[in-house]
Design brief:
- With 139 residues, this protein is mainly alpha-helical.
- It has seven helices and no strands.
- Helix 4 crosses helix 6 and helix 5 packs parallel to helix 7.
- The longest helix has 23 residues.
- It is globular.
- The two termini are 26 Å apart.
Length: 139
């Protein structure tokens, strides 16, 4: 559930510590999805509130908006599949938190955004698990 690491860090860590890869994958996917609806529903309000407060709160709010804006183009062009792609690529700066952030900033409906993020998380989880087990190479 931790931003940036998400399941990209959880799966290798879990497998390295002896957790069954299937169980590790399932737990990582489920945990990765827990914050997604909350981010989609409340992030815009939180950013607005932070900007209204000003001072030290404004800088993080602007950073979040800028980060979403960078990823927004792909999602606007391909909508559902663009969001899936942003989440599915198992690299830093992508993932469920970023996908939810972009969906929130685009005012995407929850019923459209959550399935796209979930599909991306499932794909990323499979790729990370296979790479961790040495079945596929990421290089």
């Amino acid at each position: 559930m931790v931003p940036v690491l998400e399941l990209r860090g959880a799966i290798p860590f879990g497998i390295a510590n002896g957790i069954d890869p299937v169980i590790c994958y399932l737990i990582a996917v489920a945990a990765n999805m827990i914050p997604v609806p909350f981010i989609i529903l409340f992030l815009r309000r939180l950013i607005w509130w932070l900007k209204e407060k000003g001072g030290i709160f404004e800088k993080p709010a602007l950073w979040i908006e800028k980060r979403a804006e960078k990823k927004k183009g792909k999602v606007l062009r391909y909508e559902f599949w663009g969001l899936v792609l942003i989440v599915a690529i198992p690299l830093p700066g992508t993932g469920a938190w970023t996908g939810a952030l972009v969906a929130s900033m685009m005012d995407m409906q929850l019923k459209r955004a959550v399935p796209a993020v979930l599909l991306g998380v499932i794909i990323a989880g499979v790729l990370v698990t296979l790479a961790t087990l040495g079945i596929i190479s990421v290089i």
